[in-house]
Amino acid sequence: MSYNLQMIHHRLPEGMEKWNRALRGVYLKGREACLKGVPQYQCPYADKKNGRNRITWSRSFVIAWHNGYSDMSDILEEQETAARS
Q1: SS3 of residue 55 by DSSP
Q2: Domain spans in the chain, listed from the N-terminal domain onward
C-alpha cells in the first residue's frame, strides 16, 4: 500500500513544538522511513559512547527516530483496520 508523505505531520505528539529542533527532525525522519517501507532495524543513527564508555546524546537521536517510526506504524495500522471494517 502506498502512502502520501503529507501523513508525516498527521497526529504529532502533544508539545512537540517545544522539543529540540534537531530531535523534531529526527522524529519526522523516523515517520517518513516508516511510510517509505524502510525496515525499522535500519535506523540511520548509531548509539555512540564516549571514551569513558558513557552514553552520549546520540542515544536521544536513536530513540527519537524509533519513536517516530513506531508512532507512524501505529497510525497506519489503525487506518488499515478502520478501512477493513
Answers
A1: strand
A2: 17-84
